Amino acid sequence: MLPGDPVDSALSGNDGFEAQRERLRAAGVLRLDLTESDPARCGLGPDPREVEALLAAAGDGPATEALGAAREAVASYLAGHRVSVAPDRIFFAPSREVALGRALAAAASAGDEVLVPAPTRLIAPFAGAPGVRSRSYALAFGEEWRIDGRSLRRAVAARTRALVVGNPAEPTGALLSRDELDAVDELCAVRGLALVGDEAFLDSATVPSASVARAERCLALHVSGLAGVCGLPRVAGEWIAVAGDEALAAPAAARLRALADGVD
Fold this sequence. Notes:
Layout: H1 6-10, H2 17-26, H3 48-58, H4 63-79, E1 90-93, H5 96-105, E2 113-118, E3 133-141, E4 145-147, H6 149-155, E5 160-166, H7 178-191, E6 194-198, E7 219-225, H8 226-229, E8 238-244, H9 246-263
Parallel strand pairs: 2-3, 2-5, 5-6, 6-7
Antiparallel strand pairs: 1-8, 3-4, 7-8
């Protein structure tokens, strides 16, 4: 962009960025917008209105039948990632933040700590997990972003109850390799931590990545939803899937069921 060109002129006003962007788009000047996060506005994926109509039609039937079908659909999606989760271990939430908060509330109480990566765009404190504090561990960059194992081990403290990973992480794009999953699975099992994966954009990875729901030794909580999986940021429909060690997964599922009953 050069001084005096149409984009520079359009951005020089006093109105907000969104208004400026819409004016450029309407004028046909804006051809490539790297700030746009809604695939539908870029001509990609289904039209959110069509999806909303389908959801509304599904809602015309019995609520229990619609909920059961939704759980079956999520279980089928996870099976595509080589993960087996029973439909009754899948719980829904109205937003990504609430889903993450409920996942953490199933693992931690007020005064407890959860570990979050740095850098990150995760929101803390998390909605639905009042009094839960966050402590950061580092992501290190070599040829790609990876978990800094030494930083992670040092960050675990007496009140730590959960480890949150982004898979892929925002904004770094760090992916959880199978080796890293094995390492954090073992660490969480030894230290009694839940492994919480924000995996909303798992399908956007260009290389294979292991879902946290494939953990076997610790409690694993996979968080995702329609916004990321279907590329529909304006359509609410997020979920938490409970996996991992059965002795830990069963009570966590019971806590999530109680949270859903008390809030929804």
